[in-house]
Every structure is written in C-alpha cells, then in structure tokens.
Amino acid sequence: MNGYAGRILRVNLTNGTFTKEPTPAALARDFIGGRGFGIYLLLKEVPQGADPLGPENKIFISSGPISGMLIPGGGKCDWTTKAPLTGGYASASMGGHFTAEMRYAGLDSIILEGVSPKPVTLFIDDDKIELRDASDLWGKNTFMVEKQFKDKLGEEYQIAVIGPGGENMVPYACVNHDYGRQAGRGGVGAVMGSKKLKAIVLHGTKSIPVADPAAYRKAGMALYKACKEADGLKQWTSYGTTQVVSWCDEVGALPTRNFSAGSFEGASTLSGPYMREHIVITDKGCFGCPCPCGKYSRMKKYNSNVEGPEYETIGLCGSNLGIADIESVAQANLLCDDLGIDTISAGNAIGWAMECYEKGIFTKKDTDGLDLKFGNVEAVFTMIEKIARREGLGALLSEGVKRASKKVGQGTEKFAIHVKGMEQSGYATHNATAMLLSYMTCDVGAHHNRAWAITYDLQVGRELVVPEKVARVIWLQNFRPMFDVLGGCRLQWVELNIDRDLYVPALEAITGIHRSWEDLEMVGARIWNLTRLYWARENEGFGRSWDLPPARFYEDAPKSGPTKGQITKFEDVNKLLDIYYEQRGWTSNGLPTPATIESLGLKAVFA
Amino acid sequence: MRLYVDSSKCSGCNACRVACSLNLFGENNPKKAALVIEPHFPAPGVYRVRVCTQCGDCAKVCPTEAIKQDEQGAYFVNYADCNLCEACVPECPEEVMFVRAKLADTAWKCNLCGDCVAVCGTSALWIAEIEALAA
Questions:
Q1: pTM for the model
Q2: B119 is in which domain, residue-wise?
Q3: What's the CA gap between A485 and A523, in Å, rounded?
C-alpha cells in the first residue's frame, strides 16, 4: 500500500509474543493514520471500563503517511491510550525522529498490550524483534538510559524511554525521546510503566513505497521552498514557541501564580529574545523540519543542558510558579524530562500547592517542611523529584489537581486549574472566550494544541460570545489535529503561514489517493466525534458538566495586569456550550445525536 | 564545486538525507544518504555534519574505475561498474563514502545534486567553488 510501511506490530507483553498484521486498507482510507488509527483501535480493542493501568489497557503508537517522508515536519508520532490522568481519551503527540524510524523499520503502528512479568525493553531492528531484560535499567532516569543505548548501538537508533515517573505510574508521566521530545500529556508514560516496558529501541533501513516518486519529489520540494521563503522563518526559528511569551504577557494570557493573573512582572527575563541571548546554544529540530522550534540550552548555573524550555514550560514552571529566572525554569524542565513527568501538569500542580500554602490551607507540616511559596526555586526542584517518586506531598500532587483538590477540599477545587482532570496548559483564559471554549471542549482535557484560538480572540474581540467564534474553534478542532493524523507537524502552517493546499498534491503522490482539505476535515470531524463517544462510554454521567472550565475563569478576576477585573460570566460559559453543541450536532448535554453519528458514517465504528 | 556545511547551523532534522536518498536511489531512505549528521547530546549539545569535499581520493583507489568525475567536477559512482570491494571506503577523509551491501548493490557518494541544499531550512549547507572558498 503506497504511503504506508504496510505492517502493524502487536506486542503482547504478558506472553512475550509478537505478531505483524498488514495495515488494513480500509483503516488507512477511513482514518489515514496517527490519531485516526489511535482512536479507532482504542475503541475497538480496549474493553469498556478497562483500568488505565491494568492489563486490559493498550498503547497505540502510530505514524502517518507523511511521517519519515520528504515533507516538512513529517516527524510526529501519536501515542493513544486510555488516560490514567483523566479516565478518558489520551492522545499525545511526540516529535523527534521516532516516527520516521518506525516507518523505516516497516511499521505504521505498534500496539502494546498486556503486562510484562519483569522490566523489559522492546528492541526492533528491521525484522528482528525482541523483548530484552531491562532490570538493570529500571529506576534509572531517562537521559542516562537513552545515552546508554546510543553509546552501545549508535546514533541511527531511536529510543523512547520512561523515567521513574512512569515506573511509579504518576498519572501524568510522559515518554521521553531524543533528549527532549515527549509524548507528554495524559499519562502515556504511566501506562508504559504499568506494562513494565522501560524503553523502545528502534532501527530501520527500509524504504517507504510511494505512488508517484517524481510527483512526490516535486511536491515535497515545493513545500520546503514555501517554508524557506516564508516571511516568518527567521523569527520563528530564532525563538520557536518562546516568541509568544512577551505577547501573552502583554495581553494577559501568561499563566501567573496558579492562573490568578495573566501577566507576570518577571516576564522580560523569560522572553524568547532573553532566553536566546542568555542560554540557547543550538537549534534542535524534529525529523524533516525546516523551521526547528526546539531550542537547546546550556544552564551555566547548574552545569547542565536541556532541550527547551519551550513556551508551555516557561508558562507553567516559570510565571505560574512566580519564577523569573530562565535558567531555573530550564533546570525544572530538565528535572521533569529526566524523571519522566509532564512539565505542564507538574508546573500546574505545584502552582496549586503553592496557592494552598500561601492561603494557609497547607502548612509546613503538609509540605514536608518546604517553604512552598511562589518563587521558591529550590522548593520547586524538590517537589518535582517528590512527584516523580510519589513521596510526601509529591504523592498527593502526583494524582493531578482534580483528585488532589477533591481530597483536600476547603475550597481548593475552585483554584484547581483543569478540565476533565487534565491540568490546563499555558494560556490564562479569564477573558478569551474562544480559547476558553477550546480548553473546555478539547478531546483530552485542558490542552491548547487542538484549537489554538487565543490570537483569534484578540482579533475579533476577546469577550465576544458569538456563533462565528464557536465555528472558528470547531474548524480548528477538525483541521489542526489532521496533522497528527497525517503524522506531521502543524507548525509550518500555523507559524510560517504556508498554503495548506501544498500538502494535497504531496499526499496524493505519496498514497496515490487524492484527498482535499474538505475531505480531510471531515475525517477530523469523525475523529472528534469518536473521541467524544469514547469519553461517554468510559465515564458514567459524562456530559455538559465535564466541559465546565475552572471556576477561577468565571468567578475570580485577576487583581492586576491587562485582564484586571475581567472574567467570563458563567452565563456566557453556558452560552458558549449551547452554541458549540448545536453547531457540532450534539445534544444539549453535549453528546453526539444519533443523526450526527449517522451523518458522519460512524455507526459501524461505534456500535 | 563542492558542498560546504556550517555544522553550527544544523538542527539535525535529516531532511537533507531524505532528499539525498531520493536523488541517489529514487528511494525514501536516509540510511542511503551520502552525508552524515552526528548528534552529540545531551552534552555538548551540538551536531557535526560530514559532507563530501570532492577530493577524489575514492576515485584514485577504485580498481574498476567506477568513480568518475562529471563536468562540474563532482565525483560520482557509476553503479554498474562497482563491485562492492570497499577499497574506497577507508580512503575517504570525511567518512562519507558508503558501502552497505544489505542496502544497495553499489557504493555511493555525494554527486553534488544540490537537493540537500534546497531543503535545508537553516541554510547550513551550500555549494560553492572549491578554490573560491579556500582563497
């Protein structure tokens, strides 16, 4: 099948057996790859009610037809599973070189199922597939393990590895790859830890068949040319995602002290230009990327290096914790990566704990003696370690802010900043209704990347609650995740503003099948609806109440900054949902109607 | 003419290597590329790129005279004449002369097609006269 490596590898960790199945043509036609494969397989293969950390849950690792190809940004790998953090759908997108290597090893997807009796590494070198004992690696941090494999096997091998966070099944543990790329959100690393799978080591030397090599080369070259000639290339490549730090601060979107405000007095020393000048030593790109957002940094103060920090980490582990020192934020980033926990959830959870401490709800008795006030860098480093090891207060914070605040009570739920149990990422949404709706309705919980609508808020009027805004969010939710389905990165379109129609002939030359963006967006809508049905299948009573944002954004206005005194009225929160459900073809409780399921052709999938 | 690289500008993306394999073999397989990116991470955190300087040392030792020079001065492998003896491989000062019998039934090297330069987003690669830069 052109455009596909052709095989799906199934690894049964319980028995230590492997099977290779042909990638079904109908699956490729209907769901294309990446996240599309993920949600389809999750629905079909993981039984209703499965414990996310039990033997019934599975991990689906999928590339897409542009992964590993001469297409800008063809380096994204989807990790789908039932999320230990939320009990719903998790799909984490990992950059780097893993997804390309999977395809060169002849694999479109890897399915991990069962639980190994002892720690193991999955070793794949073209057609040689083995589970190797990893008892000596268990307990080790991610960088050391990756380095060990690279030193032994060579740089052509690609490695995905969990740290102590994953081994200890922290519900927001991540998978690490290429010293700084992660399948970050929702707890994929914890599921890998529950399966006693320490690492996946990959190497492949195969070629990926394409339908029309000459047209493929031409279309690929045209995409690279467009990226290289884009006006924004130099600025974007210099700063990557950190270019938005100053902008977010100016418009009151920079998460500050547990999202109590959207502007931080120390933002200037967290900005992209400041970071570039002071700590960045190398641009580090994912596979095939002409505009690498990865910034590799050297922290002299700590005698250490890290990939990052990128915007989300600066927001959550910097301003959100009252820290203005970029080297300290970078070091927090390094600790999280090395221990294998998500910087966004970790920073958010520590922010919540700091607010509990400053409000007197926590005393030093609760914080293991730490002076857990905002801005205390050493306390943050200690808490990151404690979270990964689930020790002391870290054990509580490792549960995520939804569960932690429920346990603590005393009104702390009101400033637990999450949706559906996933900690909100780096945009304060007191008064940015499209971005707020984006977080409320995101398919994994409060994550930004499905519909990054914050610039649209500023463009059309941030407090407006109108159908056009909701339509924009829905369009973004259908369209942007298609890059995750295709196995590539959206940022060439988002940041360099290249013509998305350039992808159409490339995809056609690769797969031999013409698909317009209209067609692709329809696939996006089908996937979006399936993820919604999955949430409902797994959670009794799932519906509208699950889409409500943190109370902070409708009750608790910032006391300083550009959004001082501003919140979104609760009636507007509900109005957003009313319009959204109507436009999606969902009931007033937020569930796809039978007619919607029928019209999207999902009856057969979701029986 | 030869290919030049400023390794400090490389971000390790490998687009150049995919483009290279596509030109050399019509395949999508960076393991069959004629330039090498060595990542050095986590420390010191740099990439080192090795490219062909068109020095011709490979051609001098080839017993079947499979490595020839084209009109722009680039040495290329005439695949039909290569017998996989590997004599050329240790001669290459940059270690960018390749024989991997499992992957191809010929040696391969940079033929100065320029496709790597065309896809490099950070302008780490370029082609220039050998004399001009040495002067």
A1: 0.98
A2: 2-128
A3: 9
